Amino acid sequence: MSTVQITAADVNKLRQQTGAGMMDCKKALVEANGDFEAAVDLLRKKGQKVSAARSGNATSEGLVSINVSADGTNGKLVALACETEPVSKVEDFRNLAQAVLAAAVANNPASTEELSAITLEDGRTVAETITELTGKIGEKIVIQDYANVSGEKIVSYIHSNGKMGVLVVFEGANGVDITEAGKDVAMQIAAMNPVAVDKDGVDPATIEREIEIAKDVIRQEGKPEEMVEKIAAGKLNKFYKDSTLLNQEFVKDGSVDVRKFLDNTAKGLTVTAFKRVQLGS
Question: Whose CA is closest to 149, among 193, 110, 114, 203?
Answer without folding.
Answer: 110
